[in-house]
Amino acid sequence: ELKVEQNPLFLSMQEGKNYTIYCNYSTTSDRLYWYRQDPGKSLESLFVLLSNGAVKQEGRLMASLDTKARLSTLHITAAVHDLSATYFCAVDEVQGAQKLVFGQGTRLTINP
Amino acid sequence: DVKVTQSSRYLVKRTGEKVFLECVQDMDHENMFWYRQDPGLGLRLIYFSYDVKMKEKGDIPEGYSVSREKKERFSLILESASTNQTSMYLCASSPLDRAVTRYEQYFGPGTRLTVT
């Protein structure tokens, strides 16, 4: 059974600082997703990572994937208040229809 | 622009009522999904469908059923609502073909259901 764990679950940081959210998963997969969710809103796709060593960047966010370690990271550079949200990673179960298993989510609060 | 819509943003129902949550997508996607989201638990898959009239159980199907009569529409049914089904319900859709560029799930705005 595929399990996905994120840490930390809560993160409070100051503007301008750097930090990393970690996503570990338990079985082989070929695809990992990062989503953002603002309070009361739905999930917005941030990144799709397809292969070992994949790195994608959008603004102050950078995601990477190490399939051998079964680990993905979401790195935040010089955080700004607008990045406050809950971030989820999700891993594709590979077999059959696309079934995603989600991590618990990391609630990120960025303080001025 | 891709779009997944859900019939209600907020819903309040009484224990024992039959509840229908509707989801419609306009992207011609084969796959459709229903999740519930609870604090600290992330999203958990209730049911999914990869074709009209086809359905598969997810991780937490108990107390729920689904219907997919048309490709664009996927309904979640709570036969007899209970208070432990109070939650945020999210619908999503995705293409069937893993080879497409945007092989990912697109989410609707969610329905916050309260059962009293």
Describe what this molecule looks like in 3D:
- The complex is a heterodimer of chains A (112) and B (116).
- Chain A is built from no helices and 11 strands.
- In chain A, a hairpin with a 7-residue loop joins strand 9 and strand 10.
- The radius of gyration of chain A is 14 Å and the shape is globular.
- The relative contact order of chain A is 0.33.
- The model of chain A has no long low-confidence stretch (mean pLDDT 91).
- Helix content of chain B is 0%, strand content 51%.
- Chain B has no helices and 11 strands.
- At the A-B interface, strand 5 and strand 10 of A face strand 5, strand 9 and strand 10 of B.
For this entry, give a set of tags.
heterodimer; A: 112 residues; mainly beta; 6-stranded mixed β-sheet; 5-stranded antiparallel β-sheet; globular; B: 116 residues; 7-stranded mixed β-sheet; 4-stranded antiparallel β-sheet; 11 strands; 0% helix; 51% strand
Give the SSE layout.
The complex is a heterodimer of chains A (112) and B (116).
Chain A: E1 4-7, E2 10-14, E3 19-25, E4 32-37, E5 43-49, E6 55-58, E7 61-66, E8 71-76, E9 85-92, E10 100-102, E11 106-111
Chain B: E1 4-6, E2 10-13, E3 19-25, E4 31-38, E5 42-49, E6 56-57, E7 65-70, E8 73-78, E9 87-94, E10 106-107, E11 111-115
Parallel strand pairs in B: 2-11
Antiparallel strand pairs in B: 1-3, 3-8, 4-5, 4-9, 5-6, 7-8, 9-10, 9-11
Order of helices and strands of chain A: EEEEEEEEEEE
User: In terms of quaternary structure, what is this?
Assistant: heterodimer
Distance between the termini of chain B: 37 Å
Beta-strand percent range of chain A: over 45%
Radius of gyration of chain A: 14 Å
What Rg of chain B do the Cα atoms give? Answer: 14 Å
Low-confidence blocks of residues of chain B: none
The greatest interface between two protein chains, and residues involved on each side, is: A-B, 22 and 24 residues
Helix content of chain B: under 10%
Query: Got a strand count of chain A?
Result: 11
Reported for the largest beta sheet of chain B, the result is: 7 strands, mixed
Question: For the residues shown, what is the average pLDDT of chain B?
Answer: 92
Low-confidence segments of chain A, given as residue ranges, are none
Structural class of chain B: mainly beta
Number of helices of chain A: 0
- Calculate the terminal CA-CA distance of chain A, rounded to whole Å: 41 Å
